[in-house]
Amino acid sequence: MKVISYNLRKHRAAVELVTLVGAHDPDVLCLQECDVAELPERVGDLMLAEATQGNRLGLALYYRQSTFRLDGVKTIGLKKSLHDRIARPAHERVLGARLHEIDEGRDLIVASFHAAPLTALNSLRRHQIRAALTQLAALGEGLPQLMVGDYNYPVFKENLGKAVREHGYALTLSDDHTYTRYRVFRGHYDFATSVGFDIERVTTLPQGASDHRPILVTARLD
Question: What strand order describes the sheet that includes 57-64?
Answer without folding.
Answer: 42-43, 46-51, 57-64, 28-35, 2-7, 215-221, 197-204
